[in-house]
Design goal:
Layout (H helix, E strand, L loop, with lengths): L2 H10 L9 E4 L7 H5 L5 E8 L15 E6 L3 H10 L4 H9 L9 E7 L5 E6 L10 E7 L3 H4 L6 E5 L6 E5 L5 E5 L4 E5 L12 H18 L3 E8 L2 E9 L5 H4 L2
Length: 252
């Protein structure tokens, strides 16, 4: 299932958190000006939606390009850049390793309104580390790109799957954040008093956990999600089956 098909499915479920407005540019087609103009906001995220992505068998995280903070007038060029990344050396090597031919990728491209999140992160319905137990939330200030790319570590929250109690909250110092500005994304300093402060309240943890469980129930398997809080509103950015599920979680 592609990311675009996945987003459409998530929207149809009317979950506890909305999906930011988006449209899709189909393989081989040009950007539809009418569809683009219907999207709110001035900046957009442009990312791949290949037909081989977001399945449970292989991980494609970080393989194809993602463009953040794209101005409306630059969307068409960003779409071309994302499409071209399917033919990069890195992509060809990985696709060949898992048995997908060079010309076997159908690349749609998602154009989505950029949020201005104060915090963003990822959550797992089961602990991704073998031998560990619990649901896991990881979060950073600003956009989540620094977290998902591995550039920085975020706060890590572990939740007991039976009681729903927070069993561990590990704070990670964060001195810089990637934010959405008026002309794109930019790196800024985190205010000194917030650099070592907790990023999530108990209420926000509860909201993320409810969303995580809602997605898991709908998909019928363990999942990981990407989320963001823009102001006090929780948004669901992506959701997918977990590609690696420890044996103890499979039997739980």
């Amino acid at each position: 299932m592609s990311k675009a098909e996945n987003l459409a499915l998530l929207e149809s479920w009317a979950l506890s958190a909305p999906v930011p407005a988006w449209t899709v540019v189909r393989h081989g087609e040009l950007v539809d000006p009418q569809a683009l103009n219907a999207l709110p906001g001035d900046l957009f995220a442009v990312r791949s939606s290949a037909d081989c992505e977001d399945g449970s068998e292989h991980s494609f995280a970080g393989l194809f390009d993602t463009m953040l903070g794209v101005r409306r007038e630059d969307v068409a060029q960003a779409v071309r850049t994302v499409r071209a990344s399917a033919d990069s050396k890195r992509s060809r090597t990985y696709l060949g390793r898992i048995g997908i031919p060079r010309n076997g990728v159908r690349m749609d491209v998602i154009v989505q309104t950029m949020l201005r999140p104060r915090i963003a992160g990822v959550a797992f319905s089961c602990h991704p580390v073998p031998g560990e137990r619990g649901r896991v939330i990881e979060v950073v200030r600003g956009l989540g790109e620094l977290l998902v790319s591995g550039s920085i570590d975020g706060d890590r929250v572990v939740i007991d799957p039976e009681s729903g109690a927070v069993t561990s909250y590990e704070v990670h110092h964060q001195s810089r954040q990637l934010v959405t500005g008026s002309h794109g994304t930019r790196m800024t300093a985190v205010p000194l008093l917030r650099q070592s402060a907790r990023k999530l309240t108990r209420r926000e943890i509860g909201g993320i956990e409810r969303l995580l469980l809602d997605v898991q129930d709908r998909m019928g398997c363990h999942v990981d999600i990407e989320f963001a809080y823009d102001g006090d509103t929780l948004y669901l950015l992506q959701a997918r089956p977990m590609t690696v599920v420890p044996d103890e979680a499979r039997s739980a």
